[in-house]
Amino acid sequence: MVNAIDLALTEVHFQIPYKLLQLAFMRNTKQFNLSMDEEIMAQVISPRVIKHCNLVGGKYKEIILRTEFWEPIQLEKAALVSNIGQYSVYRIPPEEREGLPLIDVTEVEWPGVQNGYGLPYSGYYSGNSVANAARKMLDSQTFRSTPPKPTVEVLSGDLIRLNPSQHNHMQWVLTCRLAYDDNFMNMEPSAAKVFAELCVEAVKSYIYNTIVIAMDQAYIEAGAELGVVKSTIEEYKESEARFKELLEKFAGMAKYDNLYLKKLMFHCLQ
Q1: Burial class (CB in 10 A: 0-12, 13-18, 19+), 56
Q2: Which H helix or E strand runs over 62?
Q3: For residue 172, which of 69, 26, 49, 30 has the smallest C-alpha distance?
Q4: pLDDT tens digits, residue range 69-107?
Q5: What pLDDT digit, counting tens, does each position of 176-185 carry?
Q6: Helix, strand, or coil here: 207?
Q7: The pTM is what?
Q8: Angle at Cα 162 formed by Cα 254 and Cα 171, nearest 5°?
Q9: Which end of the chain has fewer CB atoms < 10 Å from its terminal CB, N or C?
């Protein structure tokens, strides 16, 4: 298992001169008694890199919506007139989502698809059967699932809503995307190297924005020559553009999740 944070901090120290790291981060480390790595985490990686990575990545997981997850809601008179069901909101407990917040939901599937069987009245439709072929043919023309399934949205880190709301409970199989944990231990290993490069470019961009104004001073607190510091920092001017390019690359690498690829291949065959 790859510790992506440890890898990222290692690359930061190898690729960025220590004197520059001192210039950008040492003031707060002295004031609050923090280590250099803790300050880099607090100023750059946690507030920026991790947030961007969670927007485009995350860990895919399947969760069965059980009855105890249902959140009873009070229906208004208008909803009753519109014949809207009350089974729409579900709260996913921490143990089901590994203690991590939900970022997004890909889809819900009918219960039974996981072990090869569909609804009782639709028969076996997970393999090369007549029912499965007919379902795929109809889906390709109408772009709607047959039998129909609700769409699902994330209301908060643990709350989801089905639309349209259902009139009875169904143990849907929910495919969702979880946030990365604090150490990115649940990250797809193939994305770890790109994540480390992201952190390096983010730190370089932070250094450029933090120190570029102070370069006109006659001396630098860490004792480095102004000419050397200036030329090195000016090389970091393009780090912001590089960060955005790497973020797109990371989004692609994060998709090498086995569950996501399985879902993608299933839909491509439809």
Answers
A1: middle
A2: strand 59-64
A3: 69
A4: 999 877 666 655 566 778 889 999 999 999 999 998 888
A5: 899 998 888 8
A6: helix
A7: 0.76
A8: 85
A9: N
Residues 6+ apart with CB under 8 A from 147: 110, 119, 122
**CA 29/CA 35 separation, integer angstroms:** 6
Helix axes 226-234, 18-32, angle to 10 degrees: 100
Q: Which two tokens stand for residue 241?
A: 């553009």
Cis peptide before 120 (omega within 30 of 0): no
Quick one: which of 181, 165, 164, 162 has its CA closest to 173?
162
ω before 164 within 30° of 0 (cis)? yes
- Integer Cα distance of 149 and 109 in angstroms: 7
In whole angstroms, give the CA distance from residue 71 to residue 62.
Answer: 20
The average pLDDT across 52-76 equals 88
Helices (H), 125-238: 130-142, 192-211, 226-234
Give me the numbers of helices (H) and strands (E) for the chain, helices first please: 10, 6
| Residue 78, phi then psi, degrees to nearest 5 | -60, -35
Instruction: Please check whether residue 155 is in contact with residue 101, taking contact to mean a CB–CB distance below 8 angstroms.
Output: no
Rounded to 5 degrees, what are φ and ψ at 241? Answer: -65, -40
| Residues 212-257 pLDDT 10s | 766 655 444 555 556 667 778 888 999 999 999 999 999 988 887 7
* CB-CB contact of 25 with 207 (8 Å): no
Transcribe 225-244 into DSSP letters: -HHHHHHHHHGGGGHHHHHH
